Amino acid sequence: MIKTTAELDLACKELAKSKFITIDTEFLRETTFWPELCLIQMASPTTEVLVDPLASGIDLAPFFELMINPSVLKVFHAARQDIEIIFNRGNLIPHPIFDTQVAAMVCGFGDSVSYDQLVSRIKGVHIDKSSRFTDWSRRPLSDKQLDYALADVTHLRDVYLFLSEQLEREGRGSWLEEEMNILEARETYDIHPDDAWQRLKMRLRKPQELAIVKYIAAWREREARSRNVPRSRVLKDDAIYEIAQQQPKDSEALSRLRTIPKGWERSAAGGAVLEAINQALSLPKAEMPQVPRHTQAPEGAAAAAELLKVLLKLIAEKHGVAAKVIANSEDLDRIAAEGEKAEVAALTGWRRDLFGETALQLIRGQVALRFVGKKVETVAL
């Protein structure tokens, strides 16, 4: 295992000679806000390396330089968390990239297929998952743990080659590019605290309630980052919702809330939350956040959405694409309610060509679904 900057530099220079490398990381984040990078695994067609980022004195600069080398494709499986860690440690986003989980969905392997399932289906190899929940921060790591970690990138080479060939054969390379652009976008990982409220499941709709949610979520985000603890350890989501609904004006009112621990209202955090409430409620109405108001669903929209689900399943199976990567339930509801005006991914790019156009024809009455034997098919009207 690589433990020095000099060793890492040599390894990265060797890996940079390849057209692609596979990458995975092991990390811990159960008790922290920022994930703790504990191990880096990389492989080229001819080389495999393990890097110990916890080794004393090691500088990861050669690794970060490799991550932005435009001549080397970086292959991940379920890339988002790995890229988030690299972004947080190196303030950069790997480029170019290839995510085998997304590629597998485009190639019809199902929704969010796991790495071990993909290796099993493509290579017929069973991966021992007993080391999956290892404490990767402990040293030394056993040979079994190291073998498990290395398998995450060695088998990934063959998975990548298989999927990239299938994408090229079926002319779906551009489909993957759209998804990779999202994964490579800085805004995917660089979330401003003032926007943290938008990541919550929105149960409230009144402007005053939303303003309180926004201000408290922003405070919680900054507090969690500065203390390096999970957001829920600062304040749970349910507490934010209850505070927004009840709008306590003082510590006594705050103490009466079901979701607030006893005595918390007298802490510095309690005072900060009360200040956030005051700031939110002092906003002019025009500056308070709003939940987007979509077009009023016309009569029959719910039934149309159900038909769109059938159409989506039909098209996904016909073309060997995971339905999840084409459209989600919200997309279908909005298409049913708003038609062409719906601003959803399913009506753009390759998704529109594959599904969106037919979906619009279905709700316009230009296309119907019918049973032929035991199969469903579309028919023009």
Description:
This protein has 16 helices and seven strands. It is of the alpha/beta class. Strand 4, helix 3 and strand 5 (97-99) form a beta-alpha-beta unit. Helix 8 packs antiparallel against helix 10 (237-246) and helix 8 (207-227) packs antiparallel against helix 12. The chain is flat and about 65 Å long. The model has no long low-confidence stretch (mean pLDDT 94).
What's the layout of helices and strands?
Blueprint: H1 5-15, E1 20-28, E2 36-43, E3 48-51, H2 61-67, E4 73-76, H3 79-90, E5 97-99, H4 100-106, H5 115-123, H6 143-169, H7 173-183, H8 207-227, H9 231-234, H10 237-246, H11 251-255, H12 268-281, H13 301-319, H14 323-326, H15 329-338, H16 349-364, E6 367-372, E7 375-380
Helix pairs in contact: 1-2, 4-6, 5-6, 8-10, 8-12, 13-15, 13-16
What's the short story on this structure?
With 381 residues, this protein is α/β, with parallel strands linked by helices.
